[in-house]
Amino acid sequence: MPYQAEISRKNPGCFVFLIDQSESMEDPFGGGEDGRRKAEELATILNKLIHNLCIRCAKSDSIYDYFHVGVLGYSADSCKPALDGELSGRSLVPISELATKPLRIEERVKKSDDGAGGVMDQTVKFPVWFDPYWKGGTPMCAALKEATRIVETWCQEHPKGFPPIVINITDGEATDGDLVAEARKLTAVGCDDGSVLLFNIHLSSTAGPSIELPSSGSKLPDQHAKQLFEASSTLTPFMVARANELGMSAAENSRGFIFNAQPLHVIHFLDIGTRPANVHLR
Amino acid sequence: MKHAKAGRERDIKVFSCPKLGNSLEEYEDASAHRHTRTQVGIRVAVADGATESSFAKLWAVLLAETYVRSELTGAEFFDRLTPARRLWRRKLSGRPPLPWFASEKAEQGAFAAFLGVQIDAHKNRWTALAVGDCCLMQVDNVGKRMRVVETFPLQKSSQFTMSPYLIGSKSNDESLNERIQISNGNLRDGDMLLLATDAVAAWLLKQHEDGRPLWKWLYRKLGTPESFAAMVAYGRQHGLRNDDCTLVRVIHHDSGVEAKEG
Q1: Prediction pTM value
Q2: What's the complex ipTM?
Q3: What is the pLDDT of residues A132-181, one digit of tens each?
Q4: Which end of chain B offers a freer environment for a tag, N or C, measured as fewer CB atoms within 10 Å?
Q5: Gap from A169 CA to chain B (nearest CA, Å)
Q6: Does B21 contact A115 at a Cβ distance shorter than 8 Å?
Q7: Which of the four CATH numbers 3.90.226.10, 3.10.20.30, 3.60.40.10, 3.90.650.10 does domain B9-261 have?
Q8: What's A96's domain CATH number?
Q9: Is A223 exposed, middle or buried (0-12, 13-18, 19+ CB in 10 A)?
Q10: pLDDT tens-digit map of B221-241
């Protein structure tokens, strides 16, 4: 059975994030009700995803390299590694390095339980790896090509490992070719345990209800969303079960596609050991 | 850890084996056993610290030790964890400052599955208390084929998941009371009680379901750490999930039978 390989420090998992930095990301997110641009939403999502991955892998006073993570940005006419600062130019980085080398660590105040039935302000560290950016066209096909190159190398180096997961975060308007055809080439890459998985997170300017892990594209609001759905991989049985445990509605044929919603649960779709059901995700 | 005086010295054995690829220092299960205060019983506990939580080994040890030193057998045990929680916090606060990710993870608390069993040698009864997926299996020793009398709190290998509800080191959360499981049963002379953490429990149940039970082997042949390690190594080739494995085997001897024999 595919997708059974254990994820461990010896056999780490691999996430590659493809992020849309095109001009259209300047537009308002989800109907613009809260005054946020899509690029800002994307930066928030990516910082939270990396933050949560770091917390997942933190163990006592250290951090275990259960995952290697890459971030490719696509904008204007190019696709290039989007991590900056000390990690500039790197296409894949062990999670321990990401944890220790963010661009900066901000301090934010959040409300938390005071243990006596009340609420108190608590200062928390908020690491930032990525700031909003937008420019030019949307070379999404170039990004999928570059991701294909990266995961081919990864699979050659980790033939027994869990197949890489590529997560594309975009507003869905590729300007350089046939998105679905490039996605097929990417997901044709594989290792002994199965093919590479491609998930798509669609940040739309359209207002409306969010859609998570649909089994069919019929209820999606526009052609861009339908195309991204078409390009998305079917979830593995473990992912369907985990999604349901986390309160998402997933079925046997659910695809890794999310429309206008925070995709934070997605990084919990890979198993690294017992996860307490009573730890609530941020 | 002192071995129990109630019953014969050899009748409680603890076996453990870390996850393949991990060092012994990373082993996050715990077990403990001890006399009841009246000396006629034994209290045994296993706890399994969750991989996805920090300082879980310490919490698992504290849970198991707290149980065997207590006299409580019901849900009220979980209301008396304040000293253990205080100790967990104190041990952490004595460490050098943690990096942001370790600090935030520790802030969530540690989590562990727990199973505690009190065995009354005079009344030939056991009482078990559990939260999570550590499992008790009672197997009798009557006739040629050993028979499974009871499994608690899970009955089938398919019931084990990767996200059980666990006991936290910070506080009891609101839904704990719904998750506490309590059971009891009678014992006959020669019965075997196995207390196991999830991976080994699930595998033993699966072997049983598939008509390849290991009960006889566990009863008669399992004796050394090496034999347990060999069983786990064999199991990992045949469906035993790679995880820390802990098994406590108790063979019950009816003190009435012992008195007559004596």
Answers
A1: 0.90
A2: 0.90
A3: 999 998 999 999 999 999 999 999 999 999 999 999 999 887 899 999 99
A4: C
A5: 25
A6: no
A7: 3.60.40.10
A8: 3.40.50.410
A9: exposed
A10: 999 999 999 999 999 999 999
